[in-house]
Amino acid sequence: MKRNNWESKIDTIQRDVARRIVGGHRGCAIKAMYGELGWRDIKYELDKRLLRFLGRMWVGGVPDERWSMKVFLEGLEDIRKGRALTPWWARVSKKFDEYGLDAGLLIRKEGLQKWRTHVDKQIASKALVDWGKGMEGMSTLRYYRKKPTPKYEPYLRDDWEKKWELFRIRTGQAMLNGIRSKWDCNTEEWCVVCKEIRETEEHLLLECKGLTLEREVVMRAFEGALDERGKEEFRGLSQVDKMGWMLGLDEGVAKRIGKQTWKRIFVGIGRLLYKRDRLADKVGWRKGMLGGK
Ligand SMILES: [Zn+2]
Asked: Nearest Cα to 170, choosing from 32, 272, 273?
């Protein structure tokens, strides 16, 4: 995709700001950072502006002497006479395909508001599809994919030092041996606590025998917030789905549990992983990426 230089500069700045807010490291997936903030690429905002402007020009809301209006009218004349599209019109026409826009709304003069609503809706749904596609096949995002839409997470606003931890666990960046061993040949994949099974977030949180006490604290808070049906449903889930619930990525579950309880759950998960890191330190294994920058 050809991009303007300044557009890619804005992109870089936007990504950098997102990374600072959520505490992502260099290799962190942008889709996950934006998912946490409810953001999307600047491209969609620019396209939205372009298409809304097109609507205004179409209904004559822009003075004829404006340069953009002249380009618009000349291009329209070209289209009517079957001549080749000007670069501006070619760009607009591509957007119609990309977002599946209905030109009929403009041609039938159904009103500017209707057009705007249509544009916003089509762009939002394309952005959502792109967001999901961007996370496909990334094993670190196997829990994060449970989040249905990019949405601002209020915990980021809190003056709460654990927020970066939560983001790192949600997005598989806790740098546990199961992941690290894939690229670091000095690391073995085994769990540092029990040394029996490949070390992953779900192993530590849900099954590791060496972390039973820490797990109980988390489970008491979490299951305590569910009703009987919820508890039963939770027990029947796959490990990855369980993680999605416990990390607050399932929208329905996230809503059912109060903010203070979530805080207790997340603090408990943080403690569990800290214990893992202390043990790793003791036996001379590599620590994870929790806490700090
Ligand atoms: Zn273990």
From this structure: 32
Q: How far is ligand 1, taken at its centre, from the CA of residue 192, in Å? A: 7
Q: What is the mean pLDDT of the chain?
A: 89
CA 194 – ligand 1 centroid, Å: 4
273 CA from centroid of ligand 1 (Å): 11
Distance CA 207, CA 201 (A): 10
Residue 210 C-alpha to ligand 1 middle, in angstroms? Answer: 6
Q: What is the dihedral of CA 124, 258, 161, 246, to 10 degrees?
A: -70
- Whether the model clears a pTM of 0.90, i.e. scores above it, the answer is no
Mind giving me the DSSP string for 195-246? SSSB--HHIIIII-GGGHHHHHHHHHHHHHTS-HHHHHHHHTS-HHHHHHHH
What is the 29 CA–ligand 1 centroid distance (Å)?
Answer: 27
Residue with token string 């654990």: 162
